[in-house]
From TrEMBL:
Gene3D superfamilies: GntR ligand-binding domain-like (1.20.120.530), Winged helix-like DNA-binding domain superfamily/Winged helix DNA-binding domain (1.10.10.10). Residues 47-114 form the HTH gntR-type domain. Keywords: DNA-binding, Transcription, Transcription regulation. Pfam families: FCD (PF07729), GntR (PF00392). Residues 1-47 are annotated as: Disordered. Residues 26-39 have a biased composition (Basic and acidic residues). This is GntR family transcriptional regulator. It comes from Streptomyces pulveraceus. PROSITE patterns: HTH_GNTR. The keyword Protein biosynthesis does not apply. InterPro entries: GntR_C (IPR011711), TF_FadR/GntR_C (IPR008920), Tscrpt_reg_HTH_GntR (IPR000524), WH-like_DNA-bd_sf (IPR036388), WH_DNA-bd_sf (IPR036390). The keyword Transcription regulation applies. Residues 1-25 have a biased composition (Low complexity).
Length: 249
């Protein structure tokens, strides 16, 4: 699917840096072919399509193509994606569970409208979870383990440099998730990732994060990693706490 068609799915043209929505195989659309797989394989493929649609919708949330307050119908989005309404509806239902959209009976799904207070509350909860863990890890994890995370920090810088908000959001969560994973608590990592994802949805009054803000946030990742490798605990403590005062940390 062309990027332009993906943009049309959300009622606006997709920016040049927006991630392309993957083409959906004809078999996955339910169209009959001579090589159509048996039912179990078709089920796996359908779930794969749903996952692809979910990731595309999440990217559209982050970069503002899904507009807060606007209602979108599954059939209309499905037509734009070239799939049936079913995987779109399933993906939207997952987003409703996550709080990104609200179900509107007989109409579709409304993108949730959020204010600065909700964003501040998310940042506070994330800080309560992540700051103590990061400070503990700074005292116990050897420099070599931190060096292994350098590519993840570099990925946030690369995404920020081109202003790709969707790619930045993904790489940002990957970096934070890899840091927290060093604590060995899988439940904590999952909870933190959910909070992090929610904090990346745009505010109604500020749907697009500025490229300069992305660059500043990415620079904090690099500085934090440098301090962790150097085992400079005072700098780590300062950077970690400062990182959660921003909207994109």
């Amino acid at each position: 699917m062309e990027q332009g068609r993906a943009g049309e799915a959300f009622g606006t043209a997709a920016p040049a840096t927006a991630p392309a929505v993957v083409r959906v195989p004809e078999q996955a659309r339910g169209e009959h072919t001579h090589s159509e797989p048996h039912a179990p394989r078709a089920t796996v493929r359908r779930h794969s399509v749903r996952g692809q649609i979910l990731e595309a919708l999440r990217a559209a949330l982050v970069d503002g193509r899904l507009v807060p307050g606007q209602v979108y119908s599954a059939p209309a989005l499905g037509a734009r994606f070239g799939v049936s309404a079913t995987p779109v509806r399933e993906a939207m239902q997952q987003l409703a569970i996550e709080g990104a959209v609200e179900v509107v009976p007989n109409r579709g799904f409304r993108v949730s409208e959020r204010g600065p207070r909700e964003l501040a509350e998310l940042a506070e909860v994330r800080a309560l979870i992540e700051v103590p863990v990061m400070l503990r890890l700074a005292r116990t994890v050897p420099p070599g383990a931190w060096c292994a995370l350098r590519p993840l920090a570099d990925a946030t810088v690369a995404a920020a440099a081109v202003g790709d908000r969707a790619s930045y959001a993904e790489s940002d969560r990957a970096f934070h998730g890899a840091v927290l994973a060093l604590c060995g608590n899988e439940q904590l990592v999952m909870v933190a990732d959910d909070l992090h994802r929610r904090s990346q949805w745009p505010l109604e009054s500020n749907p697009a994060t500025r490229r300069a803000d992305l660059l500043a946030d990415a620079a904090e990742h690099t500085a934090l990693l440098d301090a962790l490798i150097a085992q400079d605990l005072p700098v780590v403590r300062s950077l970690v706490r400062e990182h959660f005062t921003g909207a994109e940390g």
